[in-house]
Write a structure and sequence with these properties.
Chain lengths: 229, 229
Amino acid sequence: MEKSHIKVCCINCQCMSTAFKKLLPKQLRSIDNKRSELKYRKGEMICKDGSFVSSLIFIKKGLVKVYLDKGREQVIIGLKKSGDFIGLSSIYEDRLLYSAEALEDTDACITDLRTFNTILNENAAFSTEIIKLINKDLAKIYDRMYSFSNIQIRGRFAELLLALMENIYESNPFELKLSRKVMAELVSTSNESISRLTKEFKSKNIIKVKGRVFEISDIEELRRLSFEE
Amino acid sequence: MEKSHIKVCCINCQCMSTAFKKLLPKQLRSIDNKRSELKYRKGEMICKDGSFVSSLIFIKKGLVKVYLDKGREQVIIGLKKSGDFIGLSSIYEDRLLYSAEALEDTDACITDLRTFNTILNENAAFSTEIIKLINKDLAKIYDRMYSFSNIQIRGRFAELLLALMENIYESNPFELKLSRKVMAELVSTSNESISRLTKEFKSKNIIKVKGRVFEISDIEELRRLSFEE
DNA sequence: CGCGAGCTTGACGTTGTTCAACTAGAGTGG
DNA sequence: CCACTCTAGTTGAACAACGTCAAGCTCGCG
């Protein structure tokens, strides 16, 4: 699994996190000094649940699945994409809470956690942004919790399709790069159920599917379904 | 719903959060100045999902259920007790993410959020502790997520009994002050299932139940069950 | 004594999983 | 270019786990 190292200085980084924009040039430089850039291939593991943490991962490009991995079936916590951090929940812990795996080819920045924490301690505006990001993760997981507990699979699948369109691919006919298995994990069900629901939604003219290209024809119906039950 | 106001100065508070111990006397005083102490009766609502946030709640004594409340059935996020904060996930948001209700008579400190945030900005050590607390919430909800997705109800019920013994009541024969309904919500099931499982566990000599007093006789078996499936 | 809320129990239905068989398509090697 | 294999996806049937409904019970309280 070769990982190429092509560094661009943080100062000129196109995809800088809003949090990093709060840093002084000096601070940004010290982050830059203790940083490496890695490329992950689709399917490659980025970090492993329970392993020791010494760095924080920032995604420049790509799509990553973040999941709990405790021996049994994986439970997906969420997807992360360009602009997101992986590992914020463990910045003061010694162990990582989850695993991450690239669902598409992914470019990431690995920053030294010690340096990161030092700067967190020096720069309150930065710290505020980091807290906001962590809280965003909390809000997302609460939403997920809610829909796992209260919404049946038909609704969760509808929700997933909307999220793929609106948040992940950000276009309407979109090319699905996830396997049925990953879709199933995302809504905590079996691949078979995903198949059946896809078929059902096609037959009801809610979606059109050609190969890996999905088109959502009836957004309103999907939205209705995603709230129901 | 009368709430009595009996203030003790923060400096002398017995149940001060570890985070507050990082404050300078001056900072603690300004928290103290903008603070009120309230008592909630069992069953009383403490705050409401979606309402505007202007304060942060700290629990001095009691037991509180924190839950998502979006019209449909409630989804419990977790229980909070002495030493816990409610509302940390919304310190930079305008709306609260969840509701809270007292499960037992509860004493709480309500601190002004503006003051809290000002101090958060001034005191990095404090900010670190707050991030740790938020991350603890994240870790808990991930655990919950995992068990909701991977563990069946028998296992989740076993887990609940262990948690009640170890974390909530911290004693072995313990007097259960939660209704079946709340227990059911805690593991996302129906009251009927709780009844049936209680009966089953009694008949298998895993627990003894006398009225509201539960005694766990076979901890190992419970632990085994809580991992299984 | 009687009322009512919370709890229990049984019968039944629904949802969604599991298993197994089958299909389609992509990649490989002759 | 064609067989061959392998994986991902689809489909159907059987089944298990739970929820729902309805009826009955219990116990505290007026």
